[in-house]
Amino acid sequence: MLSLGGAMVSLIGVALGSGVTFLNTTETIAAQQEQSVEQYRRDQRIDIYSNLLKEMTNLQNASESARSRLTILRLSLPTPVEGQPRPTPAVAAQLEKIVSDWEAAYQRLDGTISDAELFTQEYVIDLAMVFRDRLVIDFYDAYGNAFAAARQPISDAAGDAASQLRVTAAAAADMAGTPSPYDMALLETAIPDLRNMYIDAAKRDLGLND
């Protein structure tokens, strides 16, 4: 027969053992929950970064297409004739279509960047912004150069298209007076290099290695 003291020791031992088991179980559950939350956030960033890369590629393709179309349009322009509108309404319509197609891709990437800012690392999203703005500048230049080379001033007939581009490219037009969220020197980086820098930054954030 156990003495009172022995019984008490046994009960305390059981209680302590149960308490330790409870604490271990609670800590394990908390750790598993934290791991699940972190995995969810990581999976979310994978989807966001992949979607960003898709829209970056779409804008790059749209920019290359627009540049080719602008070149073809410039080469097809007739020699300017005094007194005739330059460009003609038909050319202005083509300009508007080129701008509209490019702008649609720009808006998709811009919206994707805005949606992603709260859920991603700043150094990754900054590179997506640089990529976007570099393509804006390139397109802006291609649009102007296409007509400067042909000495074809943009007439009122093309005003809507030009104005639309200027609104879309406001970030490029106002860069000198607008605080930038990133290092402006990055805008001198080539598009393919910016793309690779973005991919490397996203992989680093996700802990992925080659």
Radius of gyration: 30 Å
Q: What's the story with the biggest beta sheet?
A: none
Please tally the β strands and state the result. Answer: 0
Average per-residue pLDDT, rounded, comes to 74
- Secondary structure class reads mainly alpha
> What string gives the helices and strands in order?
HHHHHH
Query: What best-fitting shape do the alpha-carbon axes yield?
Result: elongated
The percent range for helix content is over 70%
The low-pLDDT segments are: 149-173
Distance between the termini: 68 Å
Q: Strand percentage, roughly?
A: under 5%
User: How many alpha or pi helices?
Assistant: 6
Brief synopsis:
This protein is mainly α and 210 residues long.
